[in-house]
Every structure is written in structure tokens, then in C-alpha cells.
Amino acid sequence: MNRQDYRWEIQAKGKTKDIVASLLKIRGIKTTLEKKEFLYPTDPHKLTLKKLGLKEAEIKKTVQRIKLAIKNRQEALVYGDYDADGICATAILWETLYKAGLKVLPYIPERFTEGYGLNIESLKKLAKANPKLKLIFTVDHGIVANSKVDVAKDLGIDVVISDHHEIGKVLPKAFSIVHTTKICGSAVAWILAREIRKAFKIKDTELKLGNGLDLAAIGTIADQMPLIGANRSFAKYGLSRLNETLRPGLIALFQEAVIKSGTIGSYAVGFLIAPRIKATGRLTHAIDSLRLLCTKDPSRAAELAIHIGKVNGNRQKIVEEVVAHARKQMKKDNGEGVIVLADESYHEGVIGLAAARIVEEFYRPVIVISKKGDISKASARSISGFNIIQTIRKLGKLYLEGGGHPMAAGFSIETKKIALFSRKINQVAKKLLTKEILTRRLKIDLEIDFNSLNWDLTSELKYFEPSGLGNPTPTFLSKKINILSAKTVGKDSSHLKLVVREDKTTIPAIGFGFGNLFGAISPDKKYDLVYNLEEDSYNGNESFQLRLKDIREG
What we know:
The protein is α/β, with parallel strands linked by helices. It is built from 18 helices and 18 strands.
């Protein structure tokens, strides 16, 4: 009677008494130093450049170039990106450079006309409009923009690259390169800003909106960086700053999203805050999200937050429309292979989100294509065990350009070749998509004794926060558990509220989306439960409960 056809995969065999030690081992945290850094992450202010893989010489060159620009009254631009990480990175570096005395403006490209990263035509227009523009800082991009950096140089503009993406075969001929793959784009920008503040003797207290650590946390979580090592430092300390943020824009955004300061964790960032920041870049122009982060005016912040909330609501509606259309198309589907969906009605800005939703619903690799004239845009999402970008690259002659990684990819394709591409990719995928790969998996850390569940364990599990990629919320299995009571709660009775017991241990449990199982629950049977252990402060009463992940008859 489990909720979905999951295969349970227990990461550690047998029951264990030392739950924390086992959880650390499962996450690859083995040495004493690794354990210390995981449980007590280093403050980002104390992270060394060497540890982060950043070159001190490149940062010193950057600082000297900033000083020269200020001396010669040259002007600069922070050229960002339209996703949450890029927008946050732009705000972080722009605020620090401006405080240092550099005449600098932020710039976010428009997704549909300029595309990702430096745009050659935009560079030419910017240089023509402002002859004093002699310095551009890229944030969250630029490490493979070789030809575009060359164009900037020809225009008499030096480029400082700050990025975290994988390098190409040859580095761009930039003035300096501040690059590491260990942290996200906004974290790289934060470290660069930290070093600039040191060089210009700027105290954090002099930055009225804070030093940007709150934004670096948003970027780290939004960009789905593994929350171990340095990323864990940015997430943990940045979330602390985020809960105390002085930014009127973020405070207004919290109000619009009905988020309470002091309770914000990685879930709120990943599913409530970051999607709103990204929404403008998907549908309109991400400059509005940048304005929200940087404004000092509470009334302007409120206006922008309301606007962004509406854009995000529109984004959600458009995604729902694509998914609903996909469901109709799936009625003609044979239930095998890669799902390829193409339509003129699919909005280019949300096809990646739609693909992710369809993967979640049907658990198969998905490619959603926005048809537009002769050239269409595609976004792909995959499932564990099926390398989507590798599969797409086997059909290199059928698409124009693209990139990605094993779980996600994007590419452009001639509209007339979509049908052929769909047939060919499924010919390739047929041998690769085995029944094993197409089976959903639920990863469980440990099977534990139900009597181990207490306040002490709840307190110890707090050290595993914030959770996310690379450090999932600890998930447990307990077998042969009695269900004392059950009721449905929530809109449409979609959730299941239980009281469960083994021996003398009685604990409440909540199963979101489990309401359909209510009729199958029997007090005469025992059940195996998969769950997270969490605090529950409903109505001001402090307790802990189980958040169900799955349930089967024991």
C-alpha cells in the first residue's frame, strides 16, 4: 500500500546505536577534520583562498585594476546573469565596488534577445553609449566566453571574470580570472568582494544592506550546490544572516511569500524565495529582481515584491498549462523511452521547469521544446542512471548547439528536425532505459529502533542542517509500527495525520499527499514507516513528529 512504486534502498545495513556516526559515514564524512568541518562549518570570513581553489595573484591584479579605474575616472559594469545565483552575485559585487569608490553599474541581460552570458551586440552598444566604460566584471559566467572577451578587448574594455562553471580547453584572454568550481557564482563574487573590502579597508558595518552573505546563501541553495565543505559554510552562516536581513527588498519578499523571518531554511530558499527571484528572468526581465535586492526604500521594495509575486504566479500558471498539455499528449504515449514534447504554446522561459515537473510525475527522461519559427529551444531533464547530455550528443548532427550535464541539458534545434530527433533519441535510449533505471528509488539512511526517537536525537540532527544536495535530510526506517489513530487533514483531505506507537513510544506523524491511503489504514495491522524526524511548533507547543516519506504493511 505504499504511496508510489518506490524501491527502498537502505544505505547502511542493520540497525545502529550510533545514529550520528552512521549518518556522517553515509555522507562520506570520515576523518576527524571532515567531521569537525561538517558539524561546525567555518565562517566564510575565515575561508582561505587556497582552500577555495582561488588564485591570490588574480585577486591582487583585480584590486590593482579597480584602483587604476578609480584613479583614471574610468567606469565599470558588473555583467550578471538572469538566474537567482547570477542576480545575487551581481548585487554582491556591485554593492562592494560602488562602496569602494568605483563608478559602476549593474547589468542583467534579457534572456530572449541577449541570451546567457556576454552578448557581442550588447557589448558594442554599451561601449558606444559610454566611451568611459573600460572595465567589465562578469559574475556567474565568462569562463568559456573566449571570443566575447576578445571583442571586449578590441573595444578597449578589460574583463575580470568571476565564475564557477567548468573551464574550456583554453582560458579566455581576460585581464584577470577569479575562478573555482568549489562554490557557486554568488559565493565567488562574495569572496572577491571580501578581498576588495579588505584592500579598501571597508568594514562590513559600512554596507547599509549587509555584506551580501544573505544573498550568497540564496545563490548556493538555488544553484543546487552540494551542501558540504565550503558550500555548507555559505549556506549555514548565510541563512543566519538571511533570517536577520536588513534588505527592504527581501523583507518585502518574505511578506509577499508569507515567510516568517527567523524560520527560513534551505526549503524556504529553494522553493519560495529563489523561484520568485528567478521568475522575472524567465518571463520579463531579471533587472526587477536585482532592483528588489538592492533597493533601500521600503515602499519601492513593497511595490517590487508585489510585482515579482505576480510574475511568479504567472510563471506557475504557465508551467501548469504546459504540464496539463503534456498529460493529454501522454495518453498517446506507449509508456517507454524518452518523453519528447513540442508545441508553439510552450513558453521558452519555463520549459525547464515543465520538464522537471513531468519527470517527477512520469519518472522518465523528458525533453520539452518551445517551437518558435525556424529555430526552436529545448530543455531536458533526466532520471538517475540515464545521462541525458551524453545521449543528446550522440545526435550531434540533428541539433545546432547545446550543453548540460547528466541530469539536465538545453539545446536549440531546427524546427523541421524535431520529429526526426524524437525518433532517433528513442532509438538510442531504448537499450539504455532498462526496467531497473525506470524504477523510482527512495533512499533511506538507516533502519533504527523506534525507541531511539527522542529530543536528544532531534537536537543532534540539527547539526545536519541545512540539508540539501549532497546532504539530504536524514531519512529513517522503522518496522512493525502500530497506528493508533488516523485522520485526513488539509484542503481536499489530501494529507494524512497519524499517531503511531511501538512499545512505550508514541509519536504523531504527518504524511503530505498521503490522504488517499486513509481507507486502507487498519489498527489491526502493523506498518513499516519511512520518515524524517522534525520539530513541530504548531500553536506554540514544542514537540517532534515524523514526516512520512512512505508507508507499507509490515
